[in-house]
Design brief:
- It comes from Sporolactobacillus laevolacticus DSM 442.
- One of its GO terms (molecular function) is DNA binding.
- This protein is α+β, with helices and mostly antiparallel strands.
- The protein has 7 helices and 11 strands.
- Helix 2 crosses helix 3.
- It is globular.
Length: 218
Amino acid sequence: MRYPVIVDYFETKHATVIKKNKNEYITYSGFSTSHVWMLKEGVVKSSLILKDGREFNVAYLQKGDIVSLLREDNIAEPLAPYNVRVETETAYLYQVNRIDFWQDVYKDRDLQREVYRFYRKELEDAILKIRDFSMSGKKEALYTILLRFARKFGVPYQEGILIDFVITNEELAKFTGISTRNSVNRMLHQLKEKDIIDMVQSKIYIKNIQFLEENVVK
């Protein structure tokens, strides 16, 4: 659990729990929102729509992750920075009014520290992503995102790691900035031929994670 104090706040605050079904949106980029959400159960995806209409995926979020940026300001309904869509059959989210949330943050020193830790971690992650993708070619970008998903969804499987979440080639393309899923298909096929990965029930099984680690930007 990355942010136990924040998790405890949502659980003890008796926050409203809302249910969303697969492909339903929680927020839309550019639309006003008056709440802060934390994921109680399920997986959601944050993404941006680029000027040319393409979608660029930002992250998958899991249980205990804060879904919306907290935004420390006095605007009651700031604009949401991302589209956030449910990726599992259902998702449950804690929901609190953002003004009430910040009033509580100002009163609780431990909660303040945890919120600032959240911001520092988000900034560190953003810097690493910029480094990874600005200095990587297409293959390196794909290897980087596979390693990231192995850390997020990975479970031990045989001699390697199974990414225990179905991620389509189209979604991989949107995470890496690769223009088409056909390009991702080709690169994944090459990895399968080299016995680096395999597919298990539509999930990616990484058989040789060392190969990926040795071929990404460090």
